[in-house]
Amino acid sequence: MMRSLWTAASGMTGQQFKIDTVSNNLANVNTTGFKKSRVDFQDLLYQTVRFAGTPVTAGAQVPTGIQIGHGVRPVATQKIFSQGTFQQTDNPLDIVVEGDGFFQILLPDGNVRYTRDGAFKRDSDGRVVSSDGFPLEPELIIPDDAMDVSVGSDGTVSVMRPGANQPENIGQLELARFVNAAGLKSEGRNLFTATAASGNAIVGVPGLDGFGALAQGFLEMSNVQVVEEMVSMIVAQRAYETNSKAIQASDDMLQTANNLRR
Q1: pTM of the predicted model, to two decimals?
Q2: What are the Cα distances from residue 161, in Å, to 121, 144, 166, 170?
């Protein structure tokens, strides 16, 4: 069987994986806080027919060897954590991180997850929660009689109460960051999980020690660039077609060999 059949098949599989990733990026173009993924490829093993430097005569060596590759495979889907565009909403519980850092979300099982989605709400107990109803960590409760909520760039949360002359401080928002954010595991629902590759979360105050500052009344949109993804999709589609042509050419060559007569 011709080696090119399997080599081209690996190329088609790889480009299908690329299209799958690009499709997910485009599907989430309007997802708040979404970070696009990039596929990294790696060539497969090579069969060495002749080694470079093989002696041919006294004092003479082969300058280049003969190696035949066996195709390609995807080795990583890397999240790109570049800043997305900001959308002004004027909602006091919409918060954006200007720079590095993730909001911390406490799940019912007691584990903490991380997100860039700052579209927070207020539940029946006054807690600030995510769109799925999971509370912020550390917990932030807004009093029932609060007339105005203010979030400072350093994460300080204050409210105005009826009859008060000064805002009352009710809590402090904290952010988490990672040595290798690309090593985070995507869980869906705009949540990430820490892994051994990402390292443990480093928790701190917004605006200090490398953490991004907070801005109230804004949301961070997806960092997906539609034109860039469309170009990637076209390139992957053409590469898929080219690999299919290689399979067709190999099949034609096999057919020609099978039809040989003495």
Answers
A1: 0.88
A2: 19, 9, 9, 11
Q: How far is CA 145 from CA 119, 141, 159, 161, in A?
A: 22, 12, 9, 6
Taking the mean position of all CA atoms in its chain, how far away is CA 204? 23
Nearest to 185 by CA among 176, 198, 175: 198
Would you say residue 262 has pLDDT above 70?
no
121 lies in the same domain as 147: yes
The per-residue pLDDT for range 38-71, each reduced to its tens digit, is 999 999 999 888 888 888 887 788 888 898 999 9
Identify the sign of the CA torsion 201, 204, 207, 209: negative
Buried b (16+ CB within 10 A) or exposed e, 241-251: eebeebbeebe
Structural domain includes residue 227: no
Cβ burial, residue 82 (10 Å; 0-12/13-18/19+)? exposed
Mean of the per-residue pLDDT values of the chain = 93
- 131 lies in some domain: yes
Strands 156-160 and 168-172: antiparallel
Domain residues for 164?
86-220
In a domain, 25, yes or no: yes
Task: Tell me the three state secondary structure of residue 26.
Answer: helix
In terms of Cβ atoms closer than 10 Å to its own Cβ (0-12, 13-18, 19+), residue 141 is middle
Residue pLDDT, tens place only, 204-232: 999 999 999 999 999 999 999 999 999 99
